[in-house]
């Protein structure tokens, strides 16, 4: 099942594989209390990284995507969740205007 890591990339720089999508509930900082975290595996480094389907928007409306990293799925998931929670200032109201969601078809 790991043959994908060894294919000829025809000049492309790297290849990654989506390995898990987790749904996390009960997060008070976001409307609806739920986020999804997607975990990817990079073929060359064999490291994992994750990102969430929700990002915080600052007062100017800018979003800063976050990512978490690890040497296995669990550590990448933990780091991504930690980075997500740390990206939200403690004094931000839990309103939809303060967050942006990824397109549901791509996540």
Structural features, described:
With 107 residues, the protein is α+β, with helices and mostly antiparallel strands. It has one domain. 13% of the residues lie in helices and 31% in strands. It has 1 helix and 6 strands. The chain has one helix at 73-86, and strands at 16-25, 34-42, 48-52, 54-56, 68-70, 99-101. A 4-stranded antiparallel beta sheet has the order 1-2-3-5. A hairpin with an 8-residue loop joins strand 1 and strand 2 (34-42). The protein is elongated, with a radius of gyration of 16 Å. The mean pLDDT is 91.
List the helices and strands and how they pair.
Elements: E1 16-25, E2 34-42, E3 48-52, E4 54-56, E5 68-70, H1 73-86, E6 99-101
Antiparallel strand pairs: 1-2, 2-3, 3-5, 4-6
Strand content: 25-35%
Quote the distance from N terminus to C terminus: 23 Å
Strand order of the largest sheet: 1-2-3-5
Instruction: Tally the structural domains.
Output: 1
Q: Major sheet: size, sense and barrel closure?
A: 4 strands, antiparallel
Order of helices and strands: EEEEEHE
- The mean pLDDT is 91
Shape by Cα distribution:
elongated
Number of strands: 6
Q: Approximately how much helix is present in the residues? A: 10-25%
Which structural class do you get from the secondary structure elements?
alpha+beta
Number of helices: 1
Poorly predicted runs are none
C-alpha Rg (nearest Å): 16 Å
